[in-house]
Amino acid sequence: MKRLIKIVFLTAALINPAYMYTDQIKPLLDVAGDRQKAEKASQAKIDQMDEQTSVIISEYKTVSKQIEGLRVYNAQMRFQIQRQEDRLKEIDRTLKEAQIMQRQIPPFTRRMLAGVETSIELDMPFHLAERKERIAFAKAALDNPTVSPAEGLRQVLEAFNVEAEYGRKIDAYKDSIVIDGELREGNILRVGRLAMIFQTADEDETHAWNNSSRSWEELSNSYRNPTRKGLRIANKLATVDLMELPLQPATEVN
Predict the structure, then answer these.
(1) SS3 letters for the chain?
(2) d(C-alpha 240, C-alpha 194), whole Å
(3) Percent of the chain with pLDDT over 90
(4) Which residues contact 223 (CB under 8 A, 6 or more apart)?
(5) 230-241 pLDDT, tens per residue?
(6) ∠ at Cα 193 (191, 197), nearest 5°?
(7) CA 237 – CA 128 distance, rounded (Å)
(8) What is the spatial distance between Cα 220 and Cα 217, in angstroms, rounded to a whole number?
């Protein structure tokens, strides 16, 4: 009987040999399972760290671009600030020069106006009322404390420019002059500052202004028709043409 039991046990062992080593293999299987779980956990951590690294790298690239943009912006701002500082220095220098000029403008303006007034007194006596009124208006502007120096200078320059224009134009207008103590009415022909001719309304007498003697001198009848022609040209009643008129000799004014 005992021999039969041993044979049966041996047979069972041969049929399922793992039965004999179950207690020995189970710990090894448990270690392998734990190791597999640990590897999965480690891989999960690695994947998480890789994802975090990708996020950090992406944020780094974004921040790097922002830093580079800020560098370009700061460089541009430094350039603009430098230009503004240079502009402020230029404005400050201009203001200082303007203050100096502002102090010099009033006396210069008065000297210039005095020169224009003197030139009118020494010039041919055409449009005297209008020219003297312009000088008086400029003087009033200079004496008015509410008028800026720049505006006073503008008034004087305007008078100066008008006087300069007189020398480049031909002009004709009606006027009355005194000849031999008698008031005569007629027409004045002015050719720049070269000639100033008076002809009576009936064209019977023609006189030329002598600026040296400051008087009117009668002209011969040969100037009657040229003066009439000049008056028509000045009044735009005839085309521009040559005119034979007596000219004033050039004089030097000290």
Answers:
(1) CHHHHHHHHHHHHHHCCHHHHHHHHHHHHHHHHHHHHHHHHHHHHHHHHHHHHHHHHHHHHHHHHHHHHHHHHHHHHHHHHHHHHHHHHHHHHHHHHHHHHHHHHHHHHHHHHHHHHHHHHHCCCCCHHHHHHHHHHHHHHHHCCCCCHHHHHHHHHHHHHHHHHHCCCEEEEEEEEEECCEEEEEEEEEECCCEEEEEECCCCCEEEEECCCCEEEECCHHHHHHHHHHHHHHCCCCCCCCCCCCCCCCCCCC
(2) 17
(3) 41
(4) 197, 206, 208, 244, 245, 246
(5) 999 999 998 888
(6) 50
(7) 25
(8) 10
* Alpha carbons 156 and 6: distance in angstroms, whole number: 146
Report the greatest alpha carbon distance in the chain: 190
Note the pLDDT tens digit of each residue in 19-63. 445 566 666 566 666 677 777 777 777 877 878 888 888 888 888
Burial (0-12, 13-18, 19+ Cβ within 10 Å), 60: exposed
Q: Provide the residue type at 250 as one letter.
A: A
